[in-house]
Amino acid sequence: MASSSSPKEIIKEFPFFRVYNDGCLELFRPPSVKIPPFDDPISGVRSKDVVISSQPTVSAHIVIPKVTNPDKQKFPLLLYMHGGGFCTLSAFAKPYHDFCNTISSQANAIVVSEEYRLFPDRPIPACYEDSWAALKWVASHVSGNGPDPWLNHHADLGRVFFGGDSAGGNIAHTLAFRVGSIGLPGVNLVGVTMVHPFFGGTEDDEMWLYMCASNDGPQDPRMKPHAEDLARLGCERVLIFVAERDYLCPAGKNYYEELKKSGWKGRVELVEHLDEKHVFYLRNPTCTNALELTNKFISFIKQNNGSLRNSIESKY
Question: Known catalytic residue: 216?
Fold first, then answer.
């Protein structure tokens, strides 16, 4: 007797997952392998994992550089959001662990690498709300009586930076806009670094709209920031990296041009690496362009506020 049930069919397919007619969803990448924190005896960098919030469930990987003066030493703080199309990867995965260790050691900065909730378990906008919860947790240390002793004793919240790659670059933008719109007492956001960021105008638009049921359509400002939103970015400096062979390259360049025209009063720089693909620096961290990108990221944190002009450059 023939079955009366319909055969399983693919009804939608996106770069990161496919959807079947029975409502099931198949992610193309397996879950990230998460590694435990450890101390680096060579650089002196230490790391640990912390729970930021139970409602919502948000955690983070924290890295602190070598402390030579336990009583007085203060470091700038980088809040970092990982990539992965809003549905894969982890702050606890080895590529991000290694990258954040390098940034912490060489920029002499505390890095809080946030683990936000992912689609499909937690659809967008959970990633944005979780990142705001992480930022508020960081801000709770402004008087030196927050829940984490490393931040209480050594974080200079007058020198805060946001950073992120791909989806994380998009999240970094939304955080900067929110800080500029409503503020965050005690926190001074100096700069934002976006590496190969996702914004609207690419093949990923439909995927983002599917992951965010409460969207405002293709012009949703979280996907395609409006000029008035760009003008309210709550930071002094922005650094954008794009890769020539990355399909998100036009989106990053467009963000750069729109930010310059928006009336925002800060300084922005665009760096393009020629003949490179999306997040190449995580896949091949020792190649020449990856080292250049990492060093530029580090210099952005270390440089004086007045040293960056609106500019664009290409790297071979």
Answer: no
C-alpha 169/C-alpha 162 separation (Å) is 9
d(CA 10, CA 151): 48
246 in catalytic set = yes
Catalytic residue among 59, 229, 246, 273: 246
Q: Structure tokens of 260?
A: 């310059």
**Pairwise CA distance, residues 59 & 81, whole Å:** 12
pLDDT in tens, 104-156: 999 999 999 999 999 999 999 999 999 999 999 999 999 999 999 999 999 99
| pLDDT tens figures, 176-207 | 999 999 999 999 999 999 999 999 999 999 99
What angle (nearest 5°) sits at the alpha carbon of residue 282, between those of residues 104 and 118?
90
Burial 192-231 (b: 16+ CB within 10 A, else e): bbbbbbbbbebebbebbbbbbeebeeeebebbbbeeebbb
- Is position 113 annotated as part of the catalytic site? no
The count of other CB atoms within 10 Å of the CB of residue 279 is 21
Closest CA to 86 of 173, 193, 170, 182: 170
